[in-house]
Amino acid sequence: MAYAYDDQNIFAKILRGEIPNDTVMETEHTLAFNDIGPKAPVHVLVIPKGQYVNYDHFALDASDAEIADFTRTIGAICREAGIQPGEGGGGYRLIANSGEAGVQEVPHMHVHLLAGRPLGRMLQ
Ligand code: 5GP
Questions:
Q1: How confident is the model over 14-33, as pLDDT tens digits?
Q2: Is the entire prediction scored with pTM above 0.85?
Q3: 110 is known as an active-site residue
């Protein structure tokens, strides 16, 4: 399928530097920043710099370098934030809301990294 990317979405504006963000980590292909409405003590949004609409778009069309960079960045944030399970941090949850059923609000691929409190069951 063809993915239509809206370059006026809020994360595209963040990537262009048109609106500010609280950066947690930046690499060649990836930007991670704190969510503006945190749902947990740690709530980081990890986004690719490339124009991908959602997770399946990224997984299917991104280069190996982009995917490796994205995944390694999540690992590095977990380590730096001290949230690795078994390391005293208590673990975390990754969420990638995608499309209508996933109730995705911002149409630029992103993964939520949540930690810092017991997060409850996965779905209600
Ligand atoms: P979604 O529902 O698309 O998975 O999540 C979008 C997330 O983006 C929400 O958790 C929301 O709080 C966050 N968000 C929306 N606008 C902004 C913004 O301008 N800056 C930051 N840092 N986060 C935002």
A1: 999 999 999 999 999 999 99
A2: yes
A3: yes
